[in-house]
Specification:
The complex is a heterodimer of chains A (about 325) and B (about 120). By secondary structure, chain A is an alpha/beta fold. Helices cover about 55% and strands about 10% of the residues of chain A. Chain A contains 15 helices and 7 strands. In chain A, the strands form 2 sheets. In chain A, strands 5-4-6-7 form a 4-stranded parallel β-sheet. In chain A, strands 1-2-3 form a 3-stranded parallel β-sheet. In chain A, helix 2 packs antiparallel against helix 3, helix 4 crosses helix 15 and helix 8 packs across helix 11. In chain B, helix 1 crosses helix 4, helix 1 runs antiparallel to helix 7 and helix 4 packs across helix 7. Chain B is globular. Classes of the chains: A alpha/beta (about 325), B mainly alpha (about 120). Chains A and B meet through helix 1, helix 10 and helix 12 of A and helix 3, helix 5, helix 6 and helix 7 of B.
């Protein structure tokens, strides 16, 4: 709690600076978000696109950044030293983070499988969205969460103009935070906002019977569902994941706080307050693991926050996209 | 954010926070409050009070208050509770608006920078 003001100031300034410089919250200049799509032959650009907004692909880097921020916190909180650390971030941050993230191969593979699973599932119900590859933008959700509204408008307008360049009419989102931004926040900044936005679980659940028929293997296990705060309370997407899971042959159990009363994974504040995040996620993982050792999540932030207990508690955290990959390959 | 806009946000916040009946049911469901081992400043109700006193000038922005506001997870459990209790305040949205006001003074290079 000591020197929180200066520390929060450094975090906000770095985030703003990263997005203004590179369009990316992590400030990474090199394209790191297209590797998963290799070999899938997705069309580049079109009326309907799949928007990952880099969220799953970011996970190996987020792991490194939160670790680096936690160790640099004593410096970041001091006058002068914070500026030196930030200057270092601008010059070398990109290389250091990418180098350190090389060790997170397992997480990278996991996030790639989530996205491949989603594309495969959409494919079996005859939905073949295009992808923007290296032009794919970040939604700006962190700017919104942290109250940096002054800088959101500019970012949103750039993103919307990119969609218009590609003549996008419909977006299929893969993570709750991006879908929330595009559906609820973008229309406040764009006059006559005319893009239809859906989460992939909504589309799959509308075609659940076809999905069921096309499954190559049944995932005959018991799973407990950890609902995402944004997906349930903000977007009202609650039953869809349960319907899809049943179609994949899974038995679903409910934890203590579930559906619209779901409890947070602690993730949204991990960038700055790691101790508090860990306490929140520990409480949640205990609730979940008391019901089943196999846990389903629907959000990249929940995935990264809850999977860190896998070894310690002998549990396995699956994203629903990963389970779609398992069932369809 | 210009002065006029900033004043509108302040007025909206004071007006909405004024509707809180202080039933305090929201505090028990807040994950950050639970994790902080029952420090009321870390609860939705506590955060609204902090914002109220920051806006009317009773309190100054200091480290613990900034920590309280920015540690809100924006998970929205308090909103649901407030709705269930009939008051229907969009608590997490109000806290985010508070972050919006504070962030102006915290971002380096912003014309309102205070740090």
């Amino acid at each position: 709690m000591r020197r929180s003001k200066r520390f929060v100031s450094e975090v906000l300034s770095t985030l703003k600076d990263n997005i203004q410089r590179t369009g990316d919250p992590l400030g990474l200049k090199r394209v790191y978000w297209t590797g998963w799509a290799k070999g899938l032959n997705l069309q580049k650009g079109g009326e309907t696109i799949l928007l990952t907004a880099r969220m799953y692909q970011m996970l190996p880097y987020i792991m490194q950044i939160t670790g680096l921020v936690a160790s640099a916190k004593p410096f970041l909180s001091r006058r002068g030293l914070g500026e030196i650390v930030n200057m270092g971030n601008r010059i070398m941050g990109d290389k250091i983070i990418r180098f350190k993230a090389l060790g997170s191969r397992e997480l990278r593979l996991k996030s790639h499988n989530v996205l491949k699973g989603i594309v495969s599932a959409l494919g079996v119900i005859d939905q073949r969205p295009a992808y923007l590859y290296e032009d794919e933008p970040y939604s700006g959700v962190l700017l919104y969460d942290l109250g940096l509204d002054e800088y959101i408008e500019d970012h949103i307008k750039k993103v919307y103009s990119l969609f218009k360049t590609y003549k996008v009419k419909k977006i299929i989102g893969v993570d709750p935070h991006t879908v929330f931004m595009l559906k609820e926040i973008y229309p406040n900044y764009i006059d006559n906002y005319d893009i239809e936005v859906k989460h992939y679980l909504e589309i799959l659940s509308e075609n659940n019977q076809t999905l069921k028929k096309m499954c190559k293997k049944s995932l005959d296990k018991e799973f407990v569902i950890h609902d995402s705060c944004y997906l349930t309370r903000e977007l009202g997407i609650v039953e869809q994941v349960r319907e899809i899971s049943s179609s994949l042959g899974m038995t679903i159990a409910e934890p203590e706080n579930t559906k619209l009363d779901t409890a947070c994974c602690g993730g949204p504040i991990e960038y700055a307050f790691r101790d508090l995040t860990e306490k929140v996620s520990e409480t949640r993982i205990q609730e979940l693991s008391a019901i089943s050792k196999n846990i389903i999540v629907e959000c990249p932030i929940c995935l990264i926050n809850l999977r860190k207990y896998e070894k310690e508690m002998g549990i396995k955290v699956w994203d629903i996209g990963e389970l779609l990959f398992e069932a369809l390959h | 954010m210009d002065i006029k806009e900033s004043q509108t946000v302040r007025n909206t916040l004071l007006q909405e926070i004024g509707k809180c009946r202080a039933c305090r049911f929201c505090i028990d469901v807040c994950p950050a409050y639970q994790a902080s081992e029952w420090v009321e400043n870390m609860s939705p109700y506590g955060r609204l009070q902090i914002l109220k006193y920051l806006i009317n000038g009773t309190l100054d922005e200091d480290d613990p208050l900034i920590y309280s506001i920015y540690s809100c997870l924006q998970c929205g459990r308090c909103d649901r509770l407030c709705q269930a209790k009939g008051q229907n305040l969009d608590v997490s949205h109000l806290i985010r608006l508070g972050k919006y006001l504070l962030s102006q003074g915290l971002v380096k290079g912003s014309k309102n920078e205070k740090v």
